[in-house]
Amino acid sequence: MEEEQMISMPRIGDPAPAFKAVTTQGDINFPADYKGEWVILFSHPADFTPVCTSEFMTFAHMEEQFAKVNCKLVGLSVDGLYSHIAWLRTIKEKIEYRGMKNVEVKFPLIEDITMEVARKYGMIQPSESSTKAVRAVFYVDPKGIIRTIIYYPLSLGRNFDELYRVLIALQTADKFSIATPADWRPGDEVIVPTAGSCGTAKERMEGGGDMKCYDWFFCTRKMDEQTVLDALIKK
Ligand code: BEZ
User: Fold this and answer.
1) Phi then psi for 140, rounded to 5 degrees?
2) Each residue of 165-190: pLDDT tens digit?
């Protein structure tokens, strides 16, 4: 049973496992405190380490950009609160990296010295490390459902263009009932629902308007960047 708990991992479509925790911004009750908002819950291996520092500075730098599309950030590591506070202070006071300086991390960073939360979310992956969380990223939607999970190993810093792209793609898919093709970015064509739900194969192949079919099962339509941004960005 204990072994089973060690490797339990929530899956896409599951409700985000609930927990209460102490953070650098006070106590949180997750995901209840974030009802009605998107939230990215992410873990990092350890405070006072270089890859994590580069990532934290980048997350903090992009916090406003995420907020504009109704998304909050919540970090976690298995370090304690005083370590978190000292590390974030060092980042603000001492580190200048890639043009970022005086970076203040305003989003909550969870202390998880018991590893209770990290275990619940499958962030401890013993073959990589049994004492540190891997770099996990959970996208939780406004209803508290896990919509995407990305894991990176300890040595690999995350790609923040991709983290943001995933959020925008998820929100666009929800808003317009479409799917997004490989490497999609706002302004690119989107994929319309599969045959059967949207006319016959012949009608679809003939398309018309903004619709284009590569075959009966693969149809797209144009969606300009402004349409996407207008729909997602908070006024
Ligand atoms: C880092 O953030 O630099 C790091 C943390 C744990 C293991 C390896 C690298």
Assistant:
1) -115, 130
2) 999 999 999 999 999 999 999 999 99
Nearest to 186 by CA among 160, 168, 163: 168
Tokens of 114: 């018991």
Q: Is 51 touching ligand 1 by the criterion CB < 6 Å?
A: yes
Distance separating the N- and C-terminal Cα atoms of the chain:
49
Which one is catalytic: 52, 71, 213, 219? 52
Q: Are strands 190-191 and 218-221 parallel, antiparallel or unpaired?
A: antiparallel
Distance between Cα 160 and ligand 1 center (Å):
17
Structural domains in the chain, sorted by start:
3-162 (3.40.30.10), 177-232 (no CATH)
Nearest to 78 by CA among 139, 13, 154, 177: 154
pLDDT digits (tens, 9 = 90+) for 120-141: 999 999 999 999 999 999 999 9
Q: Which amino acid is at 26?
A: G
Query: Does the reported pTM lie above 0.85?
Result: yes
